[in-house]
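1st attempt posting a full record on here, be nice pls
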Amino acid sequence: MGGEAAKFQEFINSQAFYAIGLAVALVVLAVLVHRIRAWYRGSNDPVDDHSEIIREFQELKQRGDLSEEEFRSIKGNVSSRKNQKNGLV
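the predicted structure (as tokens):
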């Protein structure tokens, strides 16, 4: 019986080792996916560049495609989104 108990204990220990290894691998994978997504979004999201958006609408206003009132409204919306994103509101 002592041999069976030792084998069972060895089996439990080996399974725990694999379970812990699997958990660590999943955490590392989750962090990696999160960082890749953040990097990808950060480099390709034009909405994050608020000054560029305002500059483009300012060009539209200068060409006469936007009125002063429309430009101020858009600029206010962009500024409020920037403040919300930065946690200022």
